Amino acid sequence: MITRILPLILLLALTIYTAVHVVDTQANSVRGIPKSLWLIIVVIIPIIGPFCWWVFGRPLESYTPPPSAPDDDLDFLRGL
């Protein structure tokens, strides 16, 4: 019994989590297609929709490398 229900619960949780992430994302930072279309894809197409959002649609996080030395850190220099 649990072996039939558990995959459905996990799929529902993944879909809800991804849909909330799509809604919380700013529209101008979404990649590929418009945000509303991503939401429809995530909700209508199980497994593939959330997978496509996480791989192709979500915004990429901008990475700023940490300063290599204290004199490269502007916050540190302001505090002097």
Task: List the topology elements.
Blueprint: H1 2-24, H2 35-44, H3 48-57, H4 74-78
Helix pairs in contact: 1-2, 1-3, 2-3
What would your notes on this structure say?
- With 80 residues, the chain is mostly helical.
- The chain has helices spanning 2-24, 35-44, 48-57, 74-78.
- It is elongated.
- The mean pLDDT is 87.
Summarize the structure.
This protein is mostly helical. The chain contains 4 helices and no strands.
Kindly report the average pLDDT value.
87
Weakly predicted, low-confidence segments: none
Strand tally: 0
Structural class: mainly alpha
How far the N terminus sits from the C terminus, by CA atoms, comes to: 66 Å
Could you state the order of secondary-structure elements as H and E?
A: HHHH
Helix amount: 55-70%
Which outline best applies?
A: elongated
